[in-house]
Design goal:
With 697 residues, the protein is α/β, with parallel strands linked by helices. Among the domains are: 100 residues, Nucleic acid-binding proteins (OB fold (Dihydrolipoamide Acetyltransferase, E2P)), CATH 2.40.50.140; 189 residues, P-loop containing nucleotide triphosphate hydrolases (Rossmann fold), CATH 3.40.50; 158 residues, P-loop containing nucleotide triphosphate hydrolases (Rossmann fold, 3-Layer(aba) Sandwich), CATH 3.40.50.300. 37% of the residues lie in helices and 18% in strands. The protein is built from 23 helices and 21 strands. The chain has a seven-stranded parallel beta sheet, sandwiched between helices. A six-stranded parallel beta sheet has the order 16-21-20-17-19-18, sandwiched between helices. Strand 13, helix 12 and strand 14 form a beta-alpha-beta unit. Helix 7 runs antiparallel to helix 9 and helix 8 packs parallel to helix 9. The longest helix has 31 residues. The radius of gyration is 31 Å and the shape is globular.
């Protein structure tokens, strides 16, 4: 009887069909997102234990606190106990042919009946030199009798949850491989398997879970990484080529309004701004709808370039939608647009959820009749009631804060409008090739003349008085400051400083002779707007807030940014917050106040902030520390989780997979592979812009 061949994704039988999995374990496996046999086989090890290579007790360095793995044959030479009563702990003395060691059996005194002097065992564990002897409290042993089950091989170490153990996962994984692996069909074209010397799908899965040796393990990983990234790029570029095949009415561009605006500015555009503006104009003149990501460091002038693009589109006879994620940021864009564009005759309107009644009706009517050239606002822009007469350009600021369906709703309000996405969070090259492969990417790196790098100070909690003194000195010079906290209100659970409590402390005890304002997401919009206007005008010396000021706030007179509990913020957030100062001619400072109980990762983050000012370098470091989902803002939405590839370390494979996918699709646009099991249903989620671009077009 011929075995039916299946693709991995087709192994959709419930994992509970395997032996030994009842209701309780089924529920525990669900926490690991293992529902089917395919899910189980796609649950890859996070590391491995080498129980093939012999590592004797003599390999443990004397007087080191760092653990060293030992994998040897050991003889039990004695037993004793430490402590007394319920805390009585068994100690077992062992030796191999190179030295001696001690096993400390916390909670495992029953081993006294098994680890009897004179018996020999396979021993695997991490030893340290402590109290004058080599000790190990986390070990695994197996009697020397017949063929060993756990030794003489490389064992997988899996991510766990609940009551699931390594032993259990290894057991059911081995069962699933024996029952199903030989039925699996390859998901890559055979010529690619041959060209890159990759393994078959069934062999790759066997070797990734239970490798015969480390060379085959590396080959298995290479196979599965390439396969995953190839499918990802194939799907992204299929949409990209489809979008590029759509045609719109190319805009006949004129630059009179742009020239008038540049004449009114007290400075010249940087070379990067000029280059990026030319790229955007070339896109808008093209019959293919623009889909461009404009990225750049905080304060580099992206918004001005977006305004210039808006002027060109308006002069060509089209309307512009400019959307921002928060009302605070949207209002600031509207105010800047009013200052720069209104004198040129551009008719502007602002729309948010707080604009209602007759005022809202008037705006919507004027928009539908074409009397509004540019509508600036929040999520309110993509509601059904908002209708444009001739939408030609959609600008989305802080694009990572919007979802696919939101952009889809907005771009769908026009006949294939051009799309310009702005990001003040620089995107690492590997992410750009992954998330934004079907977008054209423009980058502004140079900063406007006169900008000085922000000097960053790291201050341990308890030394805030030094920070307060420096801030006071700056305010007495006529400057302003931000104080940012991770929480709005006090939390007994977290025990962190919060904005509301510290606002009162700073106002009453620390800076009683200065004017302070408070802003966070729970404050009504009108009050927030009033506070921000006062801060912008210089009527407020110190603005106390949460990370709500992370983006879009531009006050050139502010020279101090104090972030308390800085370890609670990611690198991207810290960089954005630091970017709120240093926007004028005066030297600016960032004070990052951190906890005394700082983790190793926290230390690395703050050292990076101290060392680097370039947002692109910081973004690369952030990618290494946190992963792609965090940086692109997709983690909370359930977007984009690769199963095995790491786009930071597998960049070379990503580039090759991208090239192969593009070449295949250009030669055969109808080329289709079976849906990749590791990327099930991921395509509509992986590129936050794919749906908006394609469907909008």
């Amino acid at each position: 009887m011929k075995t039916e061949k299946l693709f991995l994704r087709e192994l959709d039988s419930a994992v509970s069909g395997l032996k030994g999995i009842g209701k309780a374990l089924k529920s525990e496996l669900k926490a690991l997102e293992i529902l089917t046999v395919a899910d189980l086989l796609s649950h890859f090890p996070r590391s491995y234990e080498d129980r093939k290579s012999i590592k004797t007790l003599s390999s443990v360095p004397v007087r080191t606190s760092e653990g060293v793995i030992v994998n040897t044959v050991a003889e039990i030479i004695g037993q004793s106990y430490i402590g007394w009563g319920s805390k009585k702990t068994l100690k077992v003395f062992v030796r191999d042919n190179t030295g001696t060691g001690t096993l400390v059996c916390f909670g495992r005194s029953f081993l006294s009946r098994v680890l009897i002097p004179g018996r020999k065992f396979f021993l695997y564990g991490k030893f340290v030199y402590r109290y004058g002897e080599f000790q190990c409290s986390d070990f695994d042993m197996e009697p020397i009798s017949g063929e060993p089950k756990l030794f003489g091989r490389i064992l997988p170490v899996y991510p766990l949850a609940g009551k699931i153990t390594q032993k259990f996962l290894r057991k059911i994984m081995l069962q699933a491989l024996k029952e199903h692996a030989d039925r699996l069909e390859d998901e890559l074209p055979h010529y690619l398997l041959k060209e890159y010397n990759l393994l078959s799908k069934r062999e790759a899965l066997k070797q990734i879970h239970f490798p015969d040796d480390f060379k085959l393990l590396e080959k298995a990983r290479k196979t599965l990484v390439y396969e995953e990234l190839f499918h990802l790029q194939l799907q992204i570029w299929r949409r990209a080529l489809k979008r590029r095949s759509c045609l719109k009415a190319g805009k006949k561009l004129s630059f009179k309004l742009k020239a008038h605006l540049l004449q009114r500015l007290p400075f010249k555009l940087t070379e990067d701004q000029q280059r990026v503006f030319s790229e955007i104009c070339k896109d808008m003149a093209d019959p293919k709808p623009m889909a461009r990501l404009l990225q750049g460091d905080v304060g580099c002038g992206k918004t001005l370039v977006a305004f210039l693009a808006a002027l060109v589109s308006i002069e060509a006879g089209y309307q512009v939608a400019f959307m921002a994620p928060t009302e605070l940021l949207a209002r600031q864009h509207a105010e800047n647009a009013a200052e720069l564009l209104s004198p040129l005759g551009v008719r502007l309107a602002f729309l948010s959820g707080n604009v209602s009644g007759e005022r809202r009706s008037t705006i919507l009517k004027a928009l539908a009749e074409g009397e509004v050239n540019m509508l600036v606002g929040t999520h309110a822009l993509f509601t059904e009631q908002v209708r444009f007469r001739s939408l030609g350009l959609v600008i989305v600021d802080e694009q990572q804060r919007f979802g696919v369906l939101q952009r889809l709703a907005l771009t769908g309000k026009g006949e294939m409008p051009d799309l310009l996405l702005l990001s003040a969070t620089p995107i690492p090259r590997s992410l750009a090739l992954t998330f934004f492969a079907d977008l054209d990417v423009s980058t502004i790196k140079t900063m406007p003349e006169g900008r000085k790098p922000v000097i960053t100070h790291l201050t341990v909690e308890g030394n805030e008085e030094k920070v307060y003194k420096r801030v006071r000195e700056e305010i007495e010079k006529g400057r302003q400051a931000y104080f940012v906290y991770p929480l709005i209100a006090q939390s007994d659970k977290l025990g962190l400083k919060d904005a509301e409590s510290m606002f009162h402390t700073l106002r009453e005890d620390v800076f009683p002779d200065f004017s302070l304002g408070l802003i966070h997401s729970r404050i009504p919009e009108e009050e927030k707007e009033s506070t921000m206007v006062s801060f912008i005008k210089g009527e407020i010396d110190i603005l106390v807030s949460t990370s709500v000021v992370e983006v879009g706030v531009d006050v050139s007179n502010a020279t101090c940014m104090v972030v308390e509990c800085a370890e609670r913020f990611g690198l991207s957030a810290l960089h954005q917050l630091r970017g709120r100062v240093g926007r004028g001619e005066h030297q600016s400072y960032a004070f990052l106040v951190y906890s005394r109980d700082l983790t190793e990762e926290g230390k690395r983050r703050l050292k990076i902030m101290k060392k680097y000012h370039d947002g692109f370098i910081i973004a690369e470091e952030d990618l290494k520390l946190r992963g792609p989902g965090e940086i692109t803002g997709t983690t909370q939405s359930g977007f984009f989780r690769l199963k095995i590839a790491d786009i930071a370390s597998d960049l070379d494979v990503l580039q090759q997979a991208r090239e192969d996918a593009v070449n295949i699709l250009r030669a055969d646009p109808g080329f289709i592979l079976p849906e990749h099991s590791l990327l099930r249903e991921v395509f509509s989620r992986v590129n936050p812009f794919a749906g908006a671009i394609t469907e909008g077009g």
